[in-house]
Amino acid sequence: MASRGHRPEHGGPPELFYNKNEARKYMRNSRMIDVQTKMAGRALELLDLPEDKPCFLLDVGCGTGLSGDYLSDEGHYWVGIDISPDMLDAALDREAQGDLLLGDMGQGIPFKPGSFDGCIRFVEPELFCSCTLRTPSSWS
């Protein structure tokens, strides 16, 4: 496992680290649950969605669906996508209310533009350094 203070992705691909054991640890970590809830709340504030109607949201890198729980509690509908089957299995075990998809955001998102009212994604900025930029002309 990665040393304290370092993201697991720095030592290899994420699917090596987000396995059944890590999903269980993630779900038992009260600090992580608290952080995810607070970040989801802040994301909704920043999206500035209409307060009088539920919205349809995309949670990219949804993991175990903790952020989605907050979205559901706030009356929204959501779809989550994650690269880890084990994290998605944990979300299913928890009976997450959103629809869940297995996918790699680096390979594109399987939705047409405008399908969602908003999108949330929580990640440390340095992880974007290894991403390849894809422009609309290269999305096909």
From TrEMBL:
Give a Gene Ontology cellular component term annotated to this protein.
nucleolus
| Biological processes per GO annotation | rRNA (guanine-N7)-methylation
Q: Which residues form the Methyltransferase domain?
A: 58-120
One GO term in the molecular function aspect is:
rRNA (guanine) methyltransferase activity
State the UniProt keywords alphabetically. Methyltransferase, Transferase
Task: Classify the source by domain of life.
Answer: Eukaryota
InterPro entries registered for this protein in UniProt = Bud23-like, Methyltransf_25, SAM-dependent_MTases_sf
Q: Per its record, how is this protein called by name?
A: BUD23 rRNA methyltransferase and ribosome maturation factor
Provide the species name.
Molossus molossus (Pallas' mastiff bat)
Record lineage? Eukaryota, Metazoa, Chordata, Craniata, Vertebrata
